[in-house]
């Protein structure tokens, strides 16, 4: 059997791209459950592994200290529906599709989060995934009683302890604790449900959880840390890693590095799936695809894109001249996005204004062409050690997912590198990942890279 | 037009009653979405106003300092799925039914909760409700980094500020802030989205929310406080009040008191709906209903009921002799339940063991009989100033809801005291409640009783 790639869909519970919502084909259904449910059906028809929702807990104000540019241009942080009820409503209309929501360890409590995902995992029959983030915006800290955010190393230290507690809570019911013996009666065996009695630096949690062990053992864990601490965290805890690269070469070196790091943490590198982000534009001919990409590009207001880039880098880009290149800067935010942006700025000689447009309408990996050309590009990355599959972003929702599913997916299937039927019933099974035994958190949190 | 009663269904996202799960007709589907979705369909067929989920964030260990009695007997706190994804999945299969989840102000943050309910309100088309609790178990505090819980007055002070912040966040987008002008472009009008800049004793929150104002203005707010502070809180903030009474007389006096209190807080008493809890048992004949009630009663293990009563009263009942009456005790927990239990203990001369059985299989209001007799009882309470409607509990799920909907609802409809069609499209409209104007929180939080 040839190795198969995995596909995730990166859906925004809001307008997402500052040009996307302006397209005639874009549907402004961000506040309607049916909008997400229809995309879920499309993705399940296309045999996607999972749908993924990013998140942020503020309207970012990193551009000029104001939320205006986000709101005016419908940029990524302008409007974001809570992803948890969204994925619950998508689970209701699908049977196989995995469902991932982002929740920050910095502004939540482990009991709450462990319980939400355990509940979602049960309710969806083993399809829940948690994208673990530590957050990086001051505006988020200021919505949660802080004047400024904790520094990165504190955030990751807290995240490590958070995961340890979550693991203990998911394991607080043995797999066979629920007995349901009507006669005795014995609902659950008290000897198989354990207090966790965690007392650490950031959390003290007695347990047990009031939800039995999730069908997947733990929900699928996803991470996108880009700093050295972030990559360690991901190598230790993640089942799936998201990343964003401007070229195959940078994707390859990230891929190699993460797989090696996972091995040093005592994990089988096959048990970590790396799914770089792509935004293909598909057309009937190469020329038509390029035209389409240009049309979409035209609709991106440069300040809308720069506003989102400012929030991703956590750098106030409003202070730099628009018609010059962005100089090298200290980036407290997403290092990965900064590498990507530097690579593109150098390669294409962009001014800041052009970069804003580029970032707002960006096409990671530059997969623009016919369905066959896009499939070629994906196959090349996949077979050349750059990816275990991809996280599909689309220039506009929901149409972009329909096009990809109808045109690119069948070509990947024909080449034998993507499934035609789901392999299993849980997301872990479809991803080819082992169900963690009870106590697995212990091995992971003790591991040293 | 005759005044119509309102009906809520009290569903437990777990076994609920320590006898209920042992009944042959009980379906152990607490971990499946379809279990809740089927109930949602039944309730919508029966034109219920809303489905309501209670909650607790621990497995209580108030009986003998151990969770064993809860787990062994499948008592109320043994297993509780997170109600938020549950109501999201019920929203997916219904169009009119209101959906209420309990979230504690003591262990959550206002940004998170305001956003969840705003999101649910949008996704469900205006059907979300929040049952506001302040929590009262030490075991809950110990899952959230505390050695012991805050005292009641601190909890309510925090709850008041929590609601103030939530109100500010729901109002942080003006009703017409989302513009979606593709040409300009103008996604949202920055002048109509406001920071909240709240700085208080318990919270500091910058805002704005990243979700537009909910369709209902605020989600429907529900409360069940029973202490004097709790009743003040409810009179100030609630649209709907839950309570639990052993007789019509005590329901009447609570009803009168709350409506008066609401008036002193400057609110129209008609804008607060009081829905006492009932657990009817319906049979083809009176005798058969009584038999059925007895059969169900037989299945209740006394310790299972006492374990839940211990948690509700927050009193370790394992230290009292089982074959004597419960003496008068100091009750840090739910005063309302204590009044109810005292009333029954005196009236029926129960020992603690008998009380445990009674509490575990309890039938508030004692509506046991034919469908006509039950309808008579409800009509009497409703027309005699004891209730604006009811919160239906059932001795076993999901069957109890089907029986009530098929047999009692048509009789209430025939008498003209219950709707045959939904009046509006949002929960507020069906409850006959005004949509709060932006800024309403200000009036409520400033009001003095
Ligand atoms: C593809 C991708 C998606 C991300 N999605 C989110 C997100 O939804 N929410 C968030 O707060 N951070 C998100 N991040 C940021 C990361 O979680 C992480 O904080 C960031 O990469 C900085 O990593 P570092 O903290 O290790 O430097 C994302 C990063 C990447 C590369
Ligand atoms: C019918 C009813 C339902 C309740 N449901 C919950 C619940 O789901 N979760 C919870 O923590 N407390 C619940 N409570 C407790 C109340 O929220 C409140 O804490 C309790 O009545 C004590 O009130 P007090 O704090 O004003 O004394 C309920 C109380 C009643 C009477």
From TrEMBL, chains A, B:
Coiled coil ranges: none
Entry keyword annotation includes Flavoprotein: yes
Keyword Chaperone included in the entry's annotation: no
Keywords annotated in UniProt: Flavoprotein, FMN, Monooxygenase, Oxidoreductase
MF annotations from Gene Ontology: monooxygenase activity
NCBIfam families: FMN_nitrolo
Full protein name: Dibenzothiophene-5,5-dioxide monooxygenase
Organism: Rhodococcus rhodochrous J3
Lineage of the species this protein comes from: Bacteria, Bacillati, Actinomycetota, Actinomycetes, Mycobacteriales
């Amino acid at each position: 059997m040839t190795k198969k790639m995995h596909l995730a869909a990166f859906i925004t519970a809001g307008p997402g791209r500052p040009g996307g919502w302006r397209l005639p084909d874009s549907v402004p259904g961000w506040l309607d459950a049916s909008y997400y449910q229809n995309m879920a059906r499309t993705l399940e028809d296309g045999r996607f592994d999972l749908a993924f929702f990013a998140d942020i807990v503020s309207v970012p104000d990193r551009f000029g200290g104001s939320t205006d540019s986000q709101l005016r241009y419908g940029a990524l942080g302008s409007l974001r529906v809570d992803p948890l009820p969204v994925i619950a409503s998508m689970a209701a209309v699908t049977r196989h599709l995995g469902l991932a929501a982002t929740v920050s360890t910095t502004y939540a409590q482990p009991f709450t989060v462990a319980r939400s995902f355990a509940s979602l995992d049960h309710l969806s029959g083993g399809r829940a995934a948690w994208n673990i983030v530590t957050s990086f915006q001051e505006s988020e800290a200021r919505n949660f009683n802080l004047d400024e955010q904790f520094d990165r190393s504190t955030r990751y230290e807290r995240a490590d302890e958070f995961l340890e507690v979550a693991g203990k809570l998911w394991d607080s019911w043995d797999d066979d604790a629920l007995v349901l013996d009507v006669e005795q009666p014995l609902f659950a065996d008290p000897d198989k449900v354990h207090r966790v009695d965690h007392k650490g630096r950031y959390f003290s949690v007695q347990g047990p959880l009031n939800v039995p062990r999730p069908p997947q053992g733990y929900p699928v864990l996803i991470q996108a840390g880009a700093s050295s601490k972030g990559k360690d965290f991901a190598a230790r805890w993640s089942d799936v890693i998201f990343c964003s690269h401007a070229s195959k070469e940078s994707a390859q070196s990230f891929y190699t590095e993460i797989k090696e790091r996972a091995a040093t943490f005592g994990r089988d590198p096959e048990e970590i799936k790396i799914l770089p982000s792509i935004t293909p534009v598909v057309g009937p001919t190469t020329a038509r695809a390029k035209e389409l990409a240009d049309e979409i590009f035209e609709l991106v207001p440069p300040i809308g894109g720069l506003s989102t880039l400012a929030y991703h880098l956590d750098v106030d880009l409003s202070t730099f001249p628009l018609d010059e290149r962005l100089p090298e800067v200290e980036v407290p935010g997403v290092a990965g996005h900064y590498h990507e942006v530097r690579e593109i700025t150098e390669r294409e000689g962009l001014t800041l204004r052009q970069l804003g447009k580029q970032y707002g309408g960006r096409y990671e990996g530059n997969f623009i062409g016919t369905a066959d050309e896009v499939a070629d590009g994906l196959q090349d990355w996949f077979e050349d050690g750059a990816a275990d599959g991809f996280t599909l972003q689309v220039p506009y929702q929901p149409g972009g997912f329909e096009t990809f599913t109808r045109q690119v997916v069948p070509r990947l299937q024909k080449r034998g590198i993507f499934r035609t039927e789901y392999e299993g019933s849980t997301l872990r099974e479809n991803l080819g990942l082992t169900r963690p035994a009870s106590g697995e958190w212990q091995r992971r949190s003790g591991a040293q890279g």
